[in-house]
Design a protein that fits this description.
Structural class: alpha+beta
Number of helices: 3
Largest sheet: 4 strands, mixed
Helix content: 25-40%
Order of helices and strands: EHEEEHH
Shape: globular
Radius of gyration: 13 Å
CATH superfamily: Glutaredoxin
Distance between the termini: 34 Å
Oligomer: single chain
Number of domains: 1
CATH class: Alpha Beta
Strand order of the largest sheet: 2-1-3-4
Number of strands: 4
CATH architecture: 3-Layer(aba) Sandwich
């Protein structure tokens, strides 16, 4: 199997409901993960262009559902299912979705 151009790691970490950090799964990460997989597959990108992977904690709990895109090494935060088409379009076009990018301040919060 050839290496893909992009790997999208979706945090699907689950914590106890009472944990003050919350968890990406409680915020809809499993639905985002599945929507990304569906879109990537439907658009014929799964074999060479992109692979969607479930990930444990990416240490960005304060930023909602988080996705790490490699090798771009960029983080998307506060992602919803509605954002998925735009993320996939960005992968195809080689562009980042600027409105979803975590800032240095976001990343410092963890």
């Amino acid at each position: 199997m050839p290496q893909r151009e992009h790997y999208l790691f979706v945090c699907t970490n689950r914590r106890a409901d009472e944990d003050p950090r919350g968890s990406c799964t409680a915020r809809g990460a499993e639905e985002v993960h599945q929507a990304l997989k569906d879109q990537i597959s439907r658009r014929g990108l799964a074999k060479l262009k992109a692979r969607v992977c479930a990930s444990s904690c990416l240490d960005q709990c304060s930023s909602g559902v988080t996705i790490l895109v490699e090798p771009d090494h960029c983080f998307y935060g506060r992602v919803t299912v509605a954002d998925v088409p735009e993320i996939v379009d960005g992968i195809v076009q080689g562009l980042r979705v600027k409105r979803l990018l975590l800032t240095e301040q976001d990343l410092a919060k963890g």
